[in-house]
Amino acid sequence: MKVVVIGGGIAGITAGALLYRQQHNVVVCEREAGIPARGNAFLMHNDGIGILNELKKIDRKIYMPLPGKTINKFVLKRPSGKELMNMKIAPWQCIKRSEFINFLYSLVPYDIVKEGRVFDGFLYENGRAVAAVFQNGDIEYGDVFIGADGSNSLVRNSIFGSTDFTPVEVKEVVGVARNGRIVGAYKDTFTKFQSNVKGIAFGFIPTSDDEVVWFMQYDPAIGDITEKSPEALKAFCLNMTRRFPDVVREVIESDDFSNTYVWFTRDFDLLPTFHKENVVLIGDAAHLALPFTSAGTTNAIRDAKVLLEAMAECDTLEEAFRKYYLSRITDLSAQLSMGRKLKANFLNPMQVSEEDISVPLIYQSGPVQGKPKEKVRMLYFSDPICSTCWTIQPQLRRLQLEYGDCLDIKYHMGGLLPSWESYSSGTINEPIDAAYYWEEAADIYDIPMQGDVWLQDPLRSSFPPSVAFKAAQNQGAEMAISFLRRVREMLFLENKNIGRWEVMRDAAFDVGLDVARLRRDYEGNGVVLFKEDLELARQYDVSSFPTIFFVSGDKVVRVKEYRSYEAYEQIIRQFIPGAERRKYEKEPMVLFEAYNTMSTKEFAYFMDISTHEAVDLLNDLYLRGQIDKYVSRNGSLWKTNMEV
Predict the structure, then answer these.
(1) Do residues 145 and 153 lie in contact, with contact meaning Cβ atoms separated by under 8 Å?
(2) Is residue 417 a part of any domain in this protein?
(3) Which of 117, 193, 259, 353 has the fewest CB atoms within 10 Å, measured from its CB?
(4) What CATH number does the domain containing 625 carry?
(5) Global confidence as pTM
(6) Which tens digit of pLDDT belongs to each residue from 622-632?
(7) Does 79 fall in a domain?
């Protein structure tokens, strides 16, 4: 089968590389002479990076390294300097377009690319395209035609008619500035300043050790450029950002504006299909994302992969093209809605609460949910410094793996240690008692736990991390649980005083919380929510931790202290007699995707193997660089290696 790809940009060359590796006869037709290098730079999500890394492993052994800089932090501020967001993000790559196109062209034999071909139309036989015709007179015959010729796609127009674009309501100036000082000061970070009174924003992202790509988004209704010379464009940008911090002026002054351009942002409604007969569209030719989502490049690469997988799996082109469309449409629809919402918020900033501002990056929808199953409510009263709550982590995590679809778990903080002056619990009356108790518990339960913090930097109260947990819940239940896990690791293994804000801040950043928002909620709403938890604990007569209530209708079962896994199972089956253990994949790296940190006991428990077998397997993964570990005096914590 011969495939003709029309367009030699990111989507087209990615498709060409995939087709070449599937041993198809493929031709990529590019309108420009030479490798196309329009545009300055862009962000690419880890999904796209993963696809490209897989391409590099196939067939050929030597390729150019993927260019650009890894970005794993997002900071949003007002022009005044007020911090609105400060958070870890899934790895993105910021890449100069010219370098990325060169990288993509290294993945294909250059003789499959035919230059100087501007698409002019198709030749048809019996309603199916048999050849693509180009303005220079060239004709390329084929069996399948892939339109990858960008947002102004001539292929799209030829099969669907002219496109109804949305009006241009936001413009964006994009440039690249050479400034090593700024890269050093803002490394690994997407930094953005956005006005809260009018539609103007400025952002910059490192692309190398001495360059940043920068952009200025603006509402042309508040001011627009009339002269297109580099000098006039520079003066316009400086004037529009005159109330922004000095670093913005420094970025603008570092650009000579020789390649800086103005982008007219627009999109169009999703098409009812991406194909007609044997012609199919990918990338911006099929769907167009507003720049607020940074989705365009990743979508182009994902389109190519999903399309080629469908073509390999399906018996007919019609079936493959339908599968491709259905596989992509949910995410694309969500991204389109997100982009339009971000645009509306940008144009009307005074109508948007600061707590409702979204991270301006790609939207990924979760799996489509089926019919909800019967669930049991599980009210879990806990405390960040409770050692027994730490020792039951294996049971709770396995419950989530095997019975997660039967449980609706709600975490509540119970206030274990208001202060040492008002605390007395059996043999623990002062910090040194807690240190001895933890060391003994570590041996009994085979869980890594050190009491050093109580000797070196004892917590005065468990209330501060409890308030922080409640504040984290404002950013999502799962994010808050990850935060609670991380502060416990810091406390029990790393001997850190989690009552200190700087420690809680680091934990929040590690798990991807917006640190700026957490600080606001920690000082505000989190206090109110924690007080509500304390009142709920009083109503339920909770006096020890953990205390768990299983609730369904009028039926309530109370469980205190440490319990075996089987005890929890029996309770679940009291409420749902037919509840069955859900099978989960017991493959090490799949488990590390579910839980990015595990103690040796947890890993052994989830894998159903002995501790000795677990240690051997974990050390093998560690030596191969697939996981990392934190070694404490009485046990190790094994961690996903995020660079793999």
Answers:
(1) no
(2) yes
(3) 353
(4) 1.10.10.10
(5) 0.82
(6) 999 999 999 99
(7) no
Closest residue by Cα to residue 491 from 394, 387, 579: 387
Smallest CA-to-CA distance from 468 within 416, 515, 417, 526 is with 526
CB neighbour list of residue 612: distance below 8 Å, 6 or more residues apart = none
End residue of a domain, out of 356, 391, 419: 356
Domain limit, last residue, from 307, 328, 356: 356
**Structure confidence at residue 38 (pLDDT):** 57
Tens digits of residue pLDDT in 369-391: 444 457 899 999 999 999 999 99
pLDDT tens digit sequence for 2-30: 999 999 999 999 999 999 988 899 999 99
Alpha-carbon distances, residue 248 vs 48, 345, 354, 473 (angstroms): 30, 22, 22, 34
Contacts of 192 (CB under 8 A, 6+ apart): 74, 75, 76, 77, 201, 202, 203, 360
Half-sphere exposure of 256 (CA within 13 A, CB side): 3
Mean pLDDT of the chain: 92
Left, alpha or beta for 516 (phi > 0: left; psi -120 to 50: alpha)?
A: alpha
Distance CA 468, CA 141 (A): 64
Domain hosting 446: range is 376-575
CA 365 – CA 583 distance, rounded (Å): 24
Q: How far apart are the first and last CA of the chain?
A: 36
Per-residue pLDDT band for 368 (boundaries 50, 70, 90) equals very low
Say how far residue 368 (Cα) sits from the centre of its chain: 18
Percent of the chain at pLDDT > 90 equals: 79
Taking CA 54 as the corner, what is the angle to CA 48 and CA 58, rounded to the nearest 5 degrees? 145
- Bridge partners for 189 per DSSP: 73
Contact by Cβ (8 Å): 25, 167: no
